[in-house]
Design a protein that fits this description.
19 helices; 4 domains; alpha+beta; Aldehyde Oxidoreductase, domain 4; 27% helix
């Protein structure tokens, strides 16, 4: 029997409440440790398709009569649109449709940042569309942009009211401290640069719209597009077969989808709107810059007495305010904490979620400050963190559903003890050092998400759910979960994802929520299918259901009997078994988080300022690990991306005009394979006993969170110089 209850859901630190139906006969968790399929390395199911070029991305889609779009964008950080004449473009060769302000809500006649979309042209070829743009007569009056975040806050130019938290008595805490550190830390804007740029292909059939899109959330796009065009939600179909990366920026429909849909409606033909790489690096979102003014107090034994932080987040013209103060509020056991976060509204392109938004930046400031504090206290940095470990949630006192940060510290110690060996490598201008940083993040996911399992007469099974695989190995993980519950080899499991018309609702792939949100629904669906198989077998072989189980592709009896699954399901002929599953609620009254520690080893050339990362040990507590091979890939990707954020990546603006200077990949310095160090991955594979029928938490974001701080602290260990801004350039080192 099902009950309707209200439960909490979190994505990227933003909480909401959900009504969810809960089955009374909830599944018990599997035993800890590697099982038959779950917990064992598995190659990606789609690996060969991708390697052979057979995987079909949105960028690969070709439809009969497909038109291509070019978008007229403001070249100014702030300007007044004096005049706009679209007519010359309408008669250009190959042009089939032109739209401007008033035709689509996202096209503006009041551009407030470079890249703001003003008009769009659809033509037979992209070259024709771009040529037609040149014919549009447009007159701009450039205006002085607001670019300084502190000035914006002082003038009241903010995206939302300041977010404040106050716990305990901060003034008394600092008065009690033997040592107080005050410092300012800064992080730069960095760009997502997914391999596949933002794009969509839209096609109408009567009053029904199909959207092929590179997206992290099929259902979010469906609802947004339906609302924009006044359609019933079920009249919009969203498809994402394969996706070339997102990192947080592809969580909504985006202007390109709305433009393509409107031009498709007007022309009666399918329309593609795809951002170029330059457009991607200007107008698809960014990790916002921050200014962090921190104050930390501690007793002589290292006990934290007070933490205080003022955070100015340069969000651009719009966007939500990430929790940059989250690490300060959540990571350590400190009774007295005060934070204030400002969202500065500037004439720069809007921010977008980017892999652990806010926590990457906030962890850099907090963890660098703790290392500086440890030096003042003459205390080992790892020991300082151990002494301030929080046994319960510092913000509210709730128990943790599962926490193994102390075990992370224990395992990190072996890497931390390499300090003398690493420092001894210093010779000539090269100095070597070791640094560490802790990590905290969300990752519980939440309902609702649903899945189906189809089992045919051949005994093979297919997982069906309308979620998306953003390149993180979701298909493989879901197949492993189904295979484990059904007792089938992995090769007998298929997975159908990525189509809102062919599967049930599933959550966004963001906020480290994919496996913990959808995985439990897949297991529940597989258990439902397994129950039906056992019922059939019991009837066929005149046995009691309680003596039967599924294992190795067979139905096995307690008395030693064994029958191939296809023999049992073969009775169905053309029929199918359909198992259904739903994601249950998160644990009530508990805090579910992820934790970790990274230890970095670096070499610094004191003559040239070059910084080389030689080794990173990443120890993370993320609950049950479904696929160790895929998990290691996630860790390595996060660390490499973190190295780029730390040493080379930065969106640069012209200080006078506010224009983006780093629009291409030769100007924007992503890390290359030559920058990749030795990466040692160590996962605490212990299921969270209170979280769903899996006990698995998310791993997509935790690995990038502590990397910058660990590297900065290693540089400090090598050179004695405190690092207080990102990226750490050669010029800064000198």
């Amino acid at each position: 029997m099902a009950r309707l209850i209200r439960t909490e859901k979190e994505v990227e630190g933003r909480y909401s409440e959900q009504w969810v139906l809960v089955e009374e006969d909830a599944l018990d968790q599997w035993p800890a440790g590697p099982l038959e399929t779950v917990g064992r390395p598995a190659q990606r199911l789609t690996g060969l398709e991708r390697a052979r070029g057979e995987a079909r991305y949105t960028a690969d889609l070709q439809l009969p009569g497909l038109l291509h779009t070019a978008v007229l964008r403001s070249p100014h950080a702030r300007a007044r649109l004096v005049s706009l004449e679209l007519e010359p473009a309408r008669g250009a060769p190959g042009v089939r449709g032109v739209v401007g302000p008033g035709d689509v809500a996202c096209l503006t006649d009041d551009p407030q940042y470079q890249g703001a979309a003003v008009a769009a042209v659809a033509a037979d070829t992209f070259a024709q569309a771009r040529a037609a743009l040149e014919l549009i007569r447009v007159e701009w009056e450039p205006l002085e942009p607001l670019l300084d975040p502190d000035e914006a806050v002082a003038r009241g130019s903010v995206t939302t009211e300041a977010r404040r938290t106050d716990r305990g008595d901060v003034e008394a805490g600092f008065a009690e401290a033997d040592v107080v550190l005050e410092a300012e830390y800064r992080t730069a804007s960095v760009l997502h640069n997914a391999l596949e740029t933002h794009q969509a292909v839209c096609e109408w059939q009567g009053d029904r719209l199909t959207v092929h899109i590179s997206t992290q959330w099929i259902w979010g796009v469906r609802d947004e597009v339906a609302e924009a065009f006044g359609l019933p939600a079920d009249h919009v179909r969203v498809v994402c077969e394969f996706m070339g990366g997102g990192f947080g920026a592809k969580g909504d429909a985006g202007e390109y989808t709305l433009v393509a849909a409107e031009l498709a409606r007007r022309t009666g033909r399918p329309v593609r709107c795809a951002l170029t790489r330059s457009e991607e690096n200007v107008n698809s979102g960014n990790r916002n810059p921050t200014i962090q003014r921190l104050k930390v107090g501690a007793r002589s034994d290292g006990t934290l007495t007070a933490l205080q932080g003022e955070y100015v987040c340069a969000l651009g013209w719009s966007g939500w305010l990430p929790s940059t103060a989250g690490p300060m509020q959540m990571l350590y056991a400190c009774e007295n904490v005060r934070t204030v976060e400002h969202g500065a509204k500037l004439n720069t392109p809007p921010m977008a979620a980017f892999r652990a938004p806010g926590f990457v930046e906030g962890t850099f400031g907090l963890e660098c400050a703790l290392d500086e504090l440890a030096a003042k206290l003459d205390l080992d940095p790892l020991e300082l963190r151990r002494r301030n470990h929080a046994d319960s949630d510092p913000d509210g006192g709730r128990p943790f559903s599962g926490k193994n940060l102390v075990e992370c510290y224990r395992r990190a110690d072996a890497h931390w003890q390499r300090r003398e060996e690493v420092r001894a490598r210093s010779t000539g201008p090269w100095r070597h050092g070791v640094g560490l940083a802790s990590q905290i993040w969300y990752g519980a996911g939440g309902p609702p998400s649903y899945a189906w399992i189809r089992v045919g007469s051949n005994g093979n099974a297919t997982v069906v759910t309308a979620m998306q695989d953003i390149g993180s190995g979701t298909k493989t993980a879901m197949a492993q979960i189904a295979a484990e519950e059904l007792g089938l080899p992995l090769e007998r499991i298929g997975v159908e994802l990525g189509d809102s018309a062919r599967g049930p609702y599933a959550t966004i792939s963001g906020g480290s929520s994919t496996v913990p949100s959808v995985g439990p629904a897949v297991r529940a669906a597989a258990a439902d299918a397994a129950r039906q198989i056992i019922e059939i077998a019991a009837q066929r072989y005149h046995l009691e259901e309680r003596v039967l189980r599924l294992s190795g592709g067979r139905v096995v009896s307690a008395d030693g009997g064994s029958w191939p699954l296809e023999e049992v399901t073969g009775l169905l002929d053309e029929g199918q078994i359909l198992g259904k599953g739903a994601r249950g609620p998160n644990p009530t009254g508990m805090r579910t988080l992820t934790y970790g520690v990274q230890v970095a080893e670096v070499a610094v050339d004191t003559e040239t300022g070059e910084v080389r990362v030689d080794r990173v040990a990443a120890i993370h507590d993320v609950g049950r690990v479904i696929n160790p091979l895929g998990a290691r890939s996630q860790v390595e990707g996060g660390v490499i991306q973190g190295i780029g954020h730390t040493l080379s990546e930065q969106r640069l603006l012209d200080p006078g005009s506010g224009r983006v200077l780093t629009k291409t990949l030769d100007a924007y310095k992503l890390p290359t394979i030559a920058d990749v160090p030795e990466i040692v991955t160590d996962l605490i594979d212990v299921p969270d006993a209170h979280l769903t029928n899996l006990g698995a938490k998310g791993l997509g974001e935790p690995p990038i969170i502590p990397t910058s701080a660990a590297i900065a602290n290693a540089i400090r260990d090598a050179t004695g110089a405190s690092i207080r801004s990102l990226p750490i350039t050669r010029e800064e080192m000198l």
